[in-house]
Write a structure and sequence with these properties.
Layout (H helix, E strand, L loop, with lengths): L28 H7 L2 H4 L4 E3 L5 E6 L2 E4 H10 L6 E5 H21 L9 E3 L6 H13 L3 E4 L2 H10 L8 E3 L5 H13 L3 E5 L2 H14 L5 E5 L23 H13 L6 E6 L8 H20 L6 E3 L23 H19 L5 E3 L3 H5 L3 E11 L23 H11 L6 H20 L5 H25 L9 H4 L2 E5 L3 H4 L1 H5 L6 E3 L9 E6 L8 E2 L12 E3 L8 E5 L5 H4 L10 E8 L2 E8 L4 H7 L4 H17 L5 H16 L11
Parallel strand pairs: 4-20, 5-6, 6-7, 7-8, 8-9, 9-10, 10-11, 11-12, 14-16
Antiparallel strand pairs: 1-2, 2-3, 4-13, 13-14, 13-19, 15-19, 16-17, 16-18, 20-21
Helix pairs in contact: 4-5, 4-11, 7-8, 10-11, 13-14, 13-15, 14-15, 21-22
């Protein structure tokens, strides 16, 4: 005789509404702030307001509601996905970095100056660089370039501010160096950083040819190792810089040409996103010792460029781990200044001007990517046991054994049998799939087996959560039972570091935060690539494999990815020909936010042109094909007009999906 069937399996059940225990307070925005750890990673630039919306807080007492901004943009026919850039946050970051070093220098009785520069490789978008050049000039900020195109951009942008420091890193050819030397004659405050012996020879030749004594920099290759994801970019195996013996050869060469006093800047590369302050201390100490030794040999050094390295705490952990860092901006500045001062004082050398290239820390906080959720899929709809009569005709005794075993596993779920029931359900599900592959199970029976398996898993997780029992193998249920939310963006275009180096960014809904999020889900983008997903989210401790979100209700649901101002736009690619998203610059004016600038995202025609498609020819080919179809009677004239109009408007339209009411 088959086992007795639970009546629950014979009827359809609706999920009972969740009733919070008497000792649990109703969900609040405070709970959402704790859940998404906003205060840990936001650094004071974002908060959740009483409306349950995320707000940017670029100035004391003033907030910019992100949902209001996105809604206002939609009314202006600017649809998600959209990149929001907050110019006031950018300006505040520049001021905060400068203030940290000024305070550290005052505290340490440091007698040198501070000249930060922005490496434009971090985000080369014109509006960002122009804002940095404009606001930064008054704060003493300069610009750093690492290629010929970047040099061309910066040379023109500094026309009204010729005193703005320009540091030239990276490999250089003869024409590049010639342009730098001539820019010096033009009045620019520009320093080429020598990376190898050939560049030194080119600098000397150009200086002699044009009769100028230029400021020259050199990058030293430190023995101090890097740290974190980019640890191999520093140390003796780093890509750039001169070994100690090569530095001595350079001193001899410059002395031979009576240019040793022109060697005014010493540079190093300490890595990017350095997560451990100890590595920074070691590198600065070594670099300063090299500085004082070169001074002793007669070099005209006045400036010490410590490169970048200042991290951004993306996860809010303040820990020595990837995507975080175990120090603050103030500690970074204090340690840098103290180490330089200590070494220089011991050697009785004047304190140098300190240059930093902390681009990530300057721009990361200022940009937020906002996109809408298009829909979802997942087993959540199968959390209740199925009605067997829908899937099986005939006596229950005729059910295949794996289905009977699955029903038993569901019925047997209890506090002390969770793992056993999970194993039983897995085995029965696998047996059912094998029988189906051999032709012994019908498609409805397979569907019944799947429904029973999912219902059993949900029941096991429910009991696990209620009892608080911690079983390592059952921890995977959260991911197995999670939904997939389809998000209207391209990971490869807008968040390439998530895919390429497992960079973590804060992700959360930007509204409905006064409601409890009840759905555990991962995010999938709209590219046709299985890697186009986000399934690691910041948490207290190790990353969560799912993100708690709200159930979709047919209304627009927006998510934000924060701290994306560094590198993401420049590194993004055209996977599936999804182009740049709209970028909107938001600025405070008279205490209110206003749209300062809108940079429209790529059209389909533009991205096709990037990969050498002639859009005019494509349009002509499509029109001719429609005409042939009309003549052959396969399309009516009206149908051909509709298809042609779709094709032409598609070429001129956004590469991302737009709502039905979009123009």
């Amino acid at each position: 005789m088959p086992p007795a069937y639970n009546v629950a399996l014979m009827t359809t059940h609706a999920a009972a509404p969740a009733v919070p225990p008497l000792d649990q307070h109703p969900w609040s925005v405070r709970d959402s702030a704790d859940l998404y750890r906003v205060e840990a990673w936001a650094n004071g630039y974002f908060r959740i307001n009483q409306r349950g919306h995320v707000a940017a807080t670029p100035a004391q007492g003033i907030e910019i509601d992100l949902h209001d901004v996105v809604t206002g943009l939609r009314e202006r026919a600017i649809h998600a996905p959209v990149l929001l850039r907050f110019t006031d946050i950018l300006a505040h970051r520049l001021g905060a970095i400068r203030e940290a070093f000024v305070s550290a220098m005052k505290e340490n009785a440091y007698r040198g100056d501070y000249r930060p520069v922005y490496p434009i490789k971090v985000n080369q978008q014109h509006q960002v660089v122009a804002e940095l050049a404009d606001v930064g000039h008054d704060l003493g900020f300069g610009l750093e370039v690492g290629s010929k195109p970047e040099l061309l951009a910066v040379m023109a942008m500094t026309t009204p501010t010729p005193d703005q420091l320009i540091i030239c890193n990276g490999f250089k050819d003869a024409r590049y160096i010639e342009a730098v030397i001539l820019a010096t004659k033009l009045g620019r405050s520009i320093i080429p950083v020598v990376e190898n012996e050939l560049e030194l020879r080119l600098v000397i030749d150009c200086a002699n040819r044009y009769g100028i004594r230029p400021n020259i920099g050199v990058r030293a290759k430190l023995s101090s190792s890097g740290d974190g994801r980019w640890r191999d970019s520093a140390g003796s195996r780093s890509k750039f810089g001169l070994f100690t013996s090569e530095l001595l050869d350079m001193v001899d060469t410059l002395r031979e040409h009576n240019l040793l006093d022109c060697l005014t800047l010493l540079h190093c590369h300490n890595g990017s996103q350095v997560q451990n302050i100890r590595n920074i201390k070691d590198a600065i100490t070594e670099l300063t010792h090299i500085y004082v030794e070169l001074k002793r040999l007669g070099a005209g050094l006045t400036t010490l460029d410590i490169g970048g390295g200042l991290g951004v705490d993306y996860t809010g952990e303040q820990a020595n781990q990837f995507s975080s860092m175990n120090y603050t901006l103030e500690e970074f500045a204090s340690d840098v200044v103290y180490r330089i001062r200590s070494v220089c004082d011991t050697a009785e050398v004047e304190h140098p001007t300190v240059v930093t290239e902390c681009g990530r820390a300057m721009v990361a906080y200022s940009s937020v990517l906002v996109f809408d959720v298009l829909g979802s899929t997942g087993p959540r709809r199968f959390r209740q046991p199925p009605e067997i009569a829908r899937f099986h005709e005939g006596p229950l005794e005729d059910l295949p054994q794996p289905i009977i075993d699955l029903q038993e596993a569901y019925n047997d779920v209890a506090d002390n049998r969770l793992l056993e029931c999970y194993h039983d359900a897995q085995q029965a599900r696998d047996q059912a799939l094998t029988l189906f592959s051999l032709g012994y199970l019908t498609l409805p029976q397979r569907a019944l087996a799947e429904r029973l398996f999912w219902a059993t898993c949900f029941r096991i997780r429910e009991v696990r959560d209620r009892t608080g029992e911690e079983i390592e193998e059952l921890a995977s249920l959260d991911l197995i039972l999670s939904d997939v939310y389809f998000a209207n963006f391209s990971l490869f275009q807008s968040l390439p570091d998530t895919w390429a180096i497992d960079q973590m960014f804060p992700v959360m809904p930007i509204h409905r935060l006064q409601e409890e999020p009840t759905v555990q889900a991962i995010l999938a983008d709209i590219t046709c690539d299985s890697d186009g997903k986000i399934d690691r989210f910041i948490a207290d401790g190790k990353p969560d494999r799912t993100l708690r979100m709200h159930a979709l209700d047919g209304k627009p649901y927006y998510l934000g990815v924060f701290l994306v101002g560094a590198y993401q736009e420049t590194l993004g690619d055209l996977h599936n020909l999804f182009g740049d998203v709209h970028a909107v610059h938001i600025r405070l004016e008279d205490g209110q936010w206003c749209i300062e600038d809108v940079v429209k995202g790529d059209t389909a025609g533009e991205v096709l042109a990037y990969v050498q498609h002639d859009t005019a020819r494509l349009k002509s080919m499509m029109q001719r094909d429609c005409e042939r179809a009309v003549r052959a009677g396969r399309l009516s004239v009206d149908e051909a007009r509709v298809l042609t109009r779709f094709y032409e408007s598609g070429l001129d339209g956004y590469t991302y999906l737009e709502p039905p009411d979009a123009p």
